[in-house]
Amino acid sequence: MATAAAGALGLLWGWLWSERFWLPQNVSWADLEGAGDGDGYPRARHILSVFPLAAGVFSVRLLFERFIAKPCALHVGIEDSGPYQAQPNAILEKVFVSITKYPDEQRLEGLSKQLDWDVRKIQCWFRHRRNQDKPPTLTKFCESMWRFTFYLCIFCYGIRFLWSSPWFWDTRQCWHSYPYQPLSSGLYYYYVMELAFYWSLMFSQFIDIKRKDFLIMFVHHLATIGLITFSYINNMVRVGTLVMCLHDASDFLLEAAKLANYAKYQRLCDTLFVIFSAVFVVTRLGIYPFWILHTTLFESWEMIGPYPSWWLFNGLLLILQVLHVIWSYLIARIAFKALIRGKVRMRDGLDPDSVLSTLFSPPSFSLCLVGAGQFHLLHVSKDDRSDVESSSEEEDMAAYTKGPQGSCPSNGASCVNGHMGGSHWAEE
Questions:
Q1: C-alpha–C-alpha distance, residues 45 and 232, integer Å
Q2: What DSSP line would sit under 123-137, residue for residue?
Q3: DSSP readout, 260-312?
Q4: Per-residue confidence (pLDDT) for residue 402, from 0 to 100
Q5: Partner of 260 for a Cys bridge, out of 240, 269, 391, 394, CB 3.0 to 4.6 A?
Q6: What single DSSP character describes residue 367?
Q7: Of residues 408, 416, 387, the one with CA closest to residue 134
Q8: How confident is the model at residue 11 (pLDDT cuts 50, 70, 90)?
């Protein structure tokens, strides 16, 4: 029995590391055991060093959030406290727990008559009650600041490294003498740090803020780790560095926009998100297909020819391009609808300067969470939002504390760090 199991395991292991799948014709693993002209060739066992490094990255993150990110958050005015606590009310609490967290208009009218409360006050109560179960803005700010710092640093390192690399200027160099391309120390550090970071995200997402996109992001991290690991084992690291750097170009801009949003610097948030959107479209719909896919599909076919893992690698890159198109379309559609709503409000006599903020001010701030090689659109609608709903609490609190007959200002405007944010967004 043990012999049969060992034989089956051996067959599985042989199939998993089949030279005919991973490598071009007439190339074997033994050919890549040599030292090469530099620091050797990529080997699968190098990946094992990623796990202790990922634990180190996670430890650095904890220290960073505690001693750097948190003081920065307090400096920009983010309070170290949770959301407003809803006023204790047995009837509303029973409805919230047993029936619905999002009462419709008919139920709101019934509760208004039963409690002799204004409908607006009941809406505020449900909003505050929902926000009690959500993490404070301080925690989200610290998480985003850590990601912003890493993405910015790794992007700068990637640009610095690639600037002196010949394949950055001539993509045909990605396939010259493939797979006998030595692994330099700079390239190794770039790959290992990216992979360690995403392994740390894989572990930490179980203790981070729980969002509705948990499963999607879990798959997203798995796909990222798979692509980076696959390209390393297959020694496609040259083109891999181009893919990673290209996607890192917009990541830090998104996190910067989120930081500005949490700090309520709305003008800065608007500007950063516009820049992010432009960079996203240019890199994902322009540079990626005409630069990256061109070399992986056509130049590599011409220079080394196809083989089984070549088809898999390019298939994944093509799927990635389809996702680029979908997410770009979703961003454009959301932006178009928000701009249309802004034009209507301008005709109604509102401040034209607030039109752009309708794209990004709570609760209509739609974020594209972009990872190295894959993306996720978090479309914030109604009260399902997890990142931005509590931002509108300050304006709701005024109505909430006025008693049964409380009301809101007619135009619903509140000044947020020099930018006008309308409470009509909280009503959607």
A1: 11
A2: HHHHHHHHHHTS--H
A3: HHHTT-HHHHHHHHHHHHHHHHHIIIIIIIIIIHHIIIIIHHHHT---HHHHH
A4: 46
A5: 269
A6: E
A7: 387
A8: low
* Amino acid at site 184: S
CB 317 within 8 A of CB 323: no
Side-chain-facing half-sphere of 312: CA atoms under 13 Å: 12
**Count of beta carbons in the 10 Å neighbourhood of residue 371:** 20
| Average pLDDT over every residue of 25-54 | 79
Place of tokens 């950063």: 272
Mean pLDDT in the chain? 77
Distance CA 193, CA 189 (A): 6
Cα–Cα dist 425/125, whole Å? 17
Question: Which position has the token pair 């947020």?
Answer: 416
pLDDT band at 2 (very low <50, low <70, confident <90, very high): low
pLDDT tops 90 at residue 169: yes
CA 309, 312, 317, 320 torsion-angle sign: negative
Tell me which DSSP letter residue 361 carries: S
DSSP state, residue 375: E
Residue 168's pLDDT band (cuts 50, 70, 90): very high
Residues 6+ apart with CB under 8 A from 248: 151, 154, 155, 158, 372
* CA 324 to centroid of chain Cα atoms: 14
Q: 4 is written with which tokens?
A: 């049969």
CA 323 and chain centroid, separation: 14
Read off the tokens for 262.
Answer: 């949490």
**Who's near 15: CB < 8 A, 6+ residues apart?**
none
